[in-house]
Design brief:
Elements (H helix, E strand, L loop, with lengths): L33 H39 L3 E4 L2 E4 L7 H13 L1 H27 L9 H8 L3 H29 L4 H25 L14 H21 L20
Antiparallel strand pairs: 1-2
């Protein structure tokens, strides 16, 4: 069998019918150069899926923790002989979860999450109040207990919601300012700084509104002397700071976003 002769200089190699050719002047990549691009695309797709999953988990856990904290805040317990509302052990986690949602979804979504959680809590309180007043069946033995526990104390509920909305929106702005104006590195630092500003704001609003001797609430059953309100503030702040510090690793659950490419109002 004869060996085909090599093409003469200046001649073109015949193209088989149906073959796809590059347009004249196009630059073709050497074999093997497409592999890194495909690998990078797959890696980016996996990161996007991971961030979406983490965002869904963070949003659901955030709203759930808000509801649990508001319900459990109705009970006042003691820590080392000091008064503390029992929602204090759950609520600080929401600040870090808000930071996770902010990182995954952006500032506007974080604001929406804060307001939505407040609406859910308010709806829950209203529904429980309606249920507590709804006539019970004669066979139900816990009517009085249900009314006294889950018929919420409105002062605590309203104080909690106001404190949550104000402090978490402040947390959103401080977190965004830190990554855009200070540094996008050291994720633990941005969470620590935003929490350090927002948690005391939440604490003082809740303690004063829920238990303070305010002019229009001086005779309320929940009103306490200012010394006792200060006691609640200090203990709650200490517990919240400790729980917040323990929750810092949660921010590393998802890959960070490219803040330099983010619009300032995203």
């Amino acid at each position: 069998m004869a060996t085909p002769a090599p093409p003469e200089p200046g001649s073109t190699t015949p193209v088989p019918p149906g073959a796809v050719t590059a347009p004249p002047g196009a630059v073709t990549a050497p074999p093997g150069d497409e592999a890194p691009d495909r690998a990078a695309a797959r890696q980016a797709a996996r990161a996007a899926v991971t961030m979406t999953r983490v965002a869904v988990i963070a949003v659901g856990t955030y709203v759930g923790a808000q509801v649990v904290a508001d319900v459990s805040s109705v009970k006042i317990g003691t820590v080392f002989g000091r008064a503390v509302d029992m929602g204090t052990f759950v609520y600080p986690i929401t600040f870090t979860l808000r930071d996770v949602a902010h990182k995954a979804l952006g500032r506007r979504a974080a604001r929406t999450l804060v307001v939505t959680a407040a609406v859910v809590n308010l709806a829950m309180a209203g529904y429980l109040q309606w249920v507590a007043r709804f006539p019970a069946d004669e066979s139900y033995p816990f009517e009085a207990e249900f009314r006294s526990i889950l018929g919420p104390l409105w002062r605590i509920v309203i104080a909690s919601i106001i404190a949550e909305v104000v402090s978490e929106l402040v947390d959103t702005e401080v977190y965004h300012w830190f990554v855009r104006r200070v540094t996008a590195r050291h994720q633990w630092a941005r969470v620590a700084v935003s929490n350090a500003v927002s948690i005391p704001i939440d604490n003082v609003l809740f303690a004063v509104l829920a238990f303070g001797s305010l002019p229009f609430l001086a005779d309320d059953d929940l009103t306490l002397p200012w010394a006792a309100v200060w006691d609640i503030f200090v203990v709650n702040l200490t517990v919240k700071a400790a729980v917040s510090a323990l929750s810092l690793p949660l921010v590393y659950l998802s890959p960070d976003r490219d803040w330099s490419a983010d619009p300032d109002d995203a």
